[in-house]
Amino acid sequence: MAKDEPGEAFRKWRGEYGSVYTYWLGELPAVAITDYETTVETLVKDGDAYAGRTDFIEFNELIRGGTYGVVMTEGELWRDQRRFALHVLRNFGLGKNLMQEKVLDEVNAMVTRIKNEIFEGHNEHNLLNQLDISVGSIINALLFGYRFEGEKLSEFLELKALLQNQMRDFASPIVMCMMKGTHFFKYIPVFRSMYYKLESNREQLYGFFRKQVDEHKANLDFTTDSEPMDYVEAFLREQQKRDQEGVKHSFTNIQLLNMCNDLWMAGQETTSNTIGWCMIYMIAHPEVQDKAHDELDRMIGSDRLITVADRSQLHYVNSIVHETQRLSNLVPHNAIHRTTRDVIIKGFRIPKDTSIVPQISAVLYDEKCVPQA
Fold it and tell me: Which family does it belong to (predicted)?
């Protein structure tokens, strides 16, 4: 395994110190859980005890304008916003045929774009770019009500670059060291340039979201009871409703910007990168391609688009998807949780408010679960 592979350190430390150990992120001590059995016993079976989030107040101020959204929040704010987002997305067809139709429409659009490139004489095709556009269009339609096509493609390319920069910077060891006492680092050489880079990226990224929200506010008729057309409209209608009730609530403008950020980040990068890795693995293993094609020929038997209803019949294709998700290891360092009470992990007493990291990158490559070739 390559020495620069991000998850290798966690597996190496597991061999030296056991499956539960402490490491440091700058000045923050974090307890890593690196085996399957312990992960299930703790974060799955006793999830409430690990449902907290370590509050990096200054870091959140730098990259978010405060502790907002759903990724970095907990308690009532997290429950209220998560519940609302799921409700809205279900109304838009999440997990239903309506959502499947939207996805298949984007698949058709992507295939058409590639066919047009072939017709124009192109011999090389950037499939990852095509995937990015399709995934981005689905997410943007849910959030803001429109797809990326025509003149809107330039918007997507700009937004995608900002998201990639943010993801790349968050994985940097320099940023890891800045998680605590973040504002202090703007005075230190090397760290200073990263501090202002993160600030600039936030302003540009949230500027895009703010523009969409402002356009919705300008065009939205709050006097009607019509069903929301996208997430932002649903949020703004809920915001007005709670304002009129005169009760304190979390449906603020800054919360909306952060929800847009979280939903974009969670959907775009994970989906397109997973499919991208799948294509790379399939190119590297043509024998897997042959077996997948054979199963599709036997079970589908035509050139129609594959749907969720076919899933139970496509055992080999399902295995390819699952193995891709394991091998690609999209988030080498997982989200930092916080214990909400004292717990015991493998005989170790872990006090309340301890930072806990379920290090999935180590679990995915655990030889006890998946023998290594």
Answer: Belongs to the cytochrome P450 family.
Q: Which of 126-140, 166-180, 204-218 has the highest mean pLDDT?
A: 204-218
The answer to whether the beta carbons of residues 129 and 276 sit under 8 Å apart is: no
Q: How many CB atoms lie within 10 A of CB 7?
A: 20
Task: Round the CA-based radius of gyration of the chain to a whole number and report it.
Answer: 23
212 vs 170, residue with greater confidence: 212
> Which structure tokens are listed for 81?
């916003």
Distance CA(159)–CA(164), nearest Å, equals 9
Contact between 166 and 264 (Cβ < 8 Å): no
**What are the pLDDT digits (tens) for 10-24?**
888 998 999 999 998
**Dist CA 77 CA 36 (whole Å):** 30
Contact (CB, 8 A) for 179 and 170: no
Among candidate residues 204, 145, 213, 137, the one with its CA nearest the CA of residue 169: 204
Distances (CA, A) of 245 to 221, 239, 249: 19, 10, 10
Residue 303's contacts (CB-CB under 8 Å, 6 or more residues apart) are none
Distance of alpha carbon 187 from alpha carbon 89, whole angstroms: 43
Alpha-carbon distance 255 to 65, whole Å? 10
Q: Which long-range contacts (CB under 8 A, 24 or more apart) does 133-136 make?
A: 134/106, 134/107, 134/109, 134/110, 135/106, 135/267, 135/268, 135/271, 135/272, 135/275, 136/160, 136/268, 136/272
Is-above-0.85 flag for pTM?
yes
Q: Where are the alpha helices (DSSP H) in 18-152?
A: 36-39, 57-64, 75-91, 97-119, 127-144
What is the number of other CB atoms lying within 10 angstroms of the CB of residue 294?
Answer: 11
Residue keyed to tokens 């997507």: 156
Q: For residue 234, give every residue at least 6 positions away whose Cβ sits within 8 Å of its Cβ, in sequence order, or none.
A: 84, 88, 91, 228
Q: Confidence class of residue 96 from pLDDT cuts 50, 70 and 90?
A: low
At residue 96, the 3 state secondary structure works out as coil
Q: Is the pLDDT of residue 56 over 60?
A: yes
Query: All domains of the chain, ordered by start, with CATH?
Result: 1-54+336-373 (3.30.43.20), 56-262 (1.10.630.10)
